[in-house]
Amino acid sequence: MSAEANLTIARAWLRAFNAHDVPALVALYDDAATHTSPKIRALHPETGGKLIGKGALTAWWKDAITRLPSLRYEETALTASAERVFLEYVRHVAGEAPMFVAEVFEVAGGKIVASRVYHG
Fold this sequence. Notes:
This protein is an alpha+beta fold.
């Protein structure tokens, strides 16, 4: 994939996330994709912070949207290469302070094969 194609994936991811369109979001991932996040570790310590596969991703984001119906991400920067995308965004939830987040997508064959979230 080219850097531009991977930027397109990242922009589609942000659109799907902000639309709370979980099927469109999960469609961007490989069937065996992994997703690692401090929030997963906090809410589900038994996972070590890592989800594997589209089923787990679907359940995670459906739960997040149910718990946090105002959840949205504001893009601040996207940087891509042929293998990955680095996203920076601000997480917004009504009643909570904005949270600055960085996320990395590893991309292969036009799908996200791994994503890692970083925040303080």
